[in-house]
Design brief:
By secondary structure, the protein is of the alpha+beta class. The protein has helices spanning 2-12, 25-29, 33-48, 56-67, 166-172, 177-180, and strands at 13-16, 21-24, 72-77, 81-86, 89-94, 103-104, 108-112, 115-119, 144-148, 154-155, 164-165, 184-188, 191-195, 199-200. The strands form 4 sheets. It has a 5-stranded antiparallel β-sheet with strand order 1-2-5-4-3. It has a 5-stranded antiparallel β-sheet with strand order 6-9-12-13-14, with no helix packed on it. A two-stranded antiparallel ribbon has the order 7-8. Helix 1 crosses helix 3 and helix 3 (33-48) packs across helix 4 (56-67). The termini are far apart.
């Protein structure tokens, strides 16, 4: 049981470091209820070790986050940790809020507030299925910057006509208010071309 549940957990991991784990909700939503509880039991062992597993009530609250109709919701966990659902992702980590400094988009893992942006070179240029991943031509790399959203930022979303205020897009995506002012965007010069988890530009 543990081996299978750990495998299901690995399939859902979008990002992980020594403080935070981010899971994609879609794979979790397709798992039978019994196995979903076992996945969160495995998560508890991974985060807290075998001596501090999650209780049944905490596991039940986590499964509730997976199935709730609310795009944003959170559950408190032991040790000052939270599990927070944000627009298709489930983030588990310390309950802390961090801003970040703008900078050039470079190969590697870049801290960006409550997230990390992982930048790598790939050969596969197919359009990603979700809004948490974007693909840009390699020759744009030197012109791209990552920074917090600014007042007045707009994006021309793929599939829509015209432009939309980024703050309005964050509100429409039900991004929690405390994160909106420092939500990361990828910009080329002054043009926002990607708002992770929210919108990609048609540019």
């Amino acid at each position: 049981v543990e081996e299978k549940s750990e495998g299901l957990l690995r399939e859902a991991v979008f990002f992980q470091d020594n403080k935070r784990i981010i899971l994609e909700l879609l794979p979790l939503q397709t798992i039978a209820e019994y196995w979903l509880t076992e996945v969160f039991a495995s998560l508890g062992r991974a985060v807290y070790g075998p001596s501090g597993p999650l209780s049944r009530q905490q596991i039940s609250a986590l499964t509730g986050l997976v199935h709730t109709a609310r795009p944003s919701a959170r559950v408190s966990l032991p040790g000052g940790y939270i599990a927070e659902r944000i627009n298709g992702m489930l983030m588990i980590g310390p309950d802390e809020y961090r801003g970040f400094e703008p900078g050039d988009l470079q190969i590697g893992t870049i801290p960006a507030g409550v997230f990390y942006v992982d930048v790598s070179l790939i050969d596969d240029v197919r359009m990603p299925a979700g809004l948490w991943t974007a693909v840009f031509p390699a020759d744009l790399n030197t012109n791209l910057r990552i920074r917090p959203v600014r007042k007045g930022d707009r994006i021309a979303p793929l599939g829509m006509t015209g432009k939309k205020k980024v703050f309005r897009a964050l509100m429409d995506a039900k991004i929690p208010k405390k994160y909106r002012s420092s939500w990361p965007v990828i910009a080329m010069d002054d043009d926002v071309i990607w708002v992770p988890g929210v919108a990609r530009s048609k540019m």
